[in-house]
Amino acid sequence: MRLEKSFVVAIALASLLWAADPAVGTWKIDLNLSRVRDPATWKSSIMLVESEGKASRRITITDVATDGQTKTLEDLEITDGKEMPDKLNPGRTILHERVDDWTTRTTWKEAGKPVKLIVSSVSQDGSKMTEYLIGRDENGAFYQEKRVFHRQ
């Protein structure tokens, strides 16, 4: 009986750990492995991902430019697959979707048309997050980036 209880507890604990969001944690960009627009202007980027419940997480990104200027953005990501107004970009909508346990996809739309897409994947060992980003800038020019982050 004692062995059975231990087994049930172990299974319950394993399922809780398995269900945890692998992106939760602190991440630092690796500029040597990343391909970003205007790489000469980047000094660093730190991303903090915090769980806010089953289908949501708080994202705080702090970017430091080579001139020393710091910019911090914070957003609540709800990965329920529903399009909603984007609080950081008025006039746009945003859609967060969980593709699988390791991957999310975020789409921004303007006037109903996609203008930016980020696909974020955490490596199976949980040590690296890679973001692939495509979009159009404020002048309508197409761009794409690859951002590689390491868990801190």
Please characterize this protein's 3D structure.
With 152 residues, this protein is mainly β. It has one domain (22-151): Calycin beta-barrel core domain (Lipocalin, Beta Barrel), CATH 2.40.128. It is built from one helix and ten strands, in the order H-E-E-E-E-E-E-E-E-E-E. It has one helix at 2-19; strands spanning 25-29, 42-51, 56-65, 70-78, 84-85, 92-100, 103-110, 113-122, 128-136, 142-151. It has a ten-stranded antiparallel β-sheet, with no helix packed on it. The longest helix is centred in the first third of the chain and has 18 residues, at 2-19. It is globular, with a radius of gyration of 18 Å. Mean pLDDT is 88; it is low at 7-18.
Sheet-strand content, in percent, reads over 45%
Sequence of strands across the biggest β-sheet: 4-3-2-1-10-9-8-7-6-5
Q: Give the number of domains.
A: 1
> What is the count of helical runs?
1
What share of residues is helical?
10-25%
CATH second-level architecture: Beta Barrel
Average pLDDT, all residues: 88
**H/E element sequence:** HEEEEEEEEEE
Q: How many strand units?
A: 10
Briefly note the CATH topology name. Answer: Lipocalin
Main beta-sheet strand count, sense and barrel state: 10 strands, antiparallel
In angstroms, what is the radius of gyration?
A: 18 Å
User: CATH homologous superfamily - what is it?
Assistant: Calycin beta-barrel core domain
**SS content category:** mainly beta
Q: Which ranges are low-confidence, i.e. pLDDT below 50, for 5 or more consecutive residues? A: 7-18
How far from one another are the termini?
Answer: 42 Å
CATH class designation: Mainly Beta
Assembly context of the chains: single chain
